[in-house]
Amino acid sequence: MRKIIYGLDDIKLKITNMKGQNVQMSINRGRKKIEFVHATIKDVYPSVFTIKTSDEKLQTFSYFDVLCGNVVLDEKN
């Protein structure tokens, strides 16, 4: 069993602080499909957050996706 280090409130705060920043994401789409995306965190809502990818697509993810490890965010320098 995986030990949870961060809670949902911690993840929401972290993503809220990263709003407007460029991030590199790895997204687990299931069945051994992992997608790597360069994006900007566009908007932050109470249950979800949206990103705009480098090819101008808008995608939505929940904070639970980050908590479970299906979405991993890394800040780009």
Number of helices: 2
Strand residue content: over 45%
Task: Calculate the mean pLDDT score and round it.
Answer: 90
CATH topology: SH3 type barrels
CATH architecture: Roll
The CATH C-level class name = Mainly Beta
The percent of residues in helical segments reads: 10-25%
Estimate nothing, just give the exact number of structural domains. Answer: 1
Topology overview:
Layout: H1 8-17, E1 22-30, E2 33-44, E3 48-53, E4 58-62, H2 63-68, E5 71-75
Antiparallel strand pairs: 1-2, 1-5, 2-3, 3-4
Please give a quick description of this structure.
With 77 residues, the protein is α+β, with helices and mostly antiparallel strands. It has helices spanning 8-17, 63-68; strands spanning 22-30, 33-44, 48-53, 58-62, 71-75. The mean pLDDT is 90.
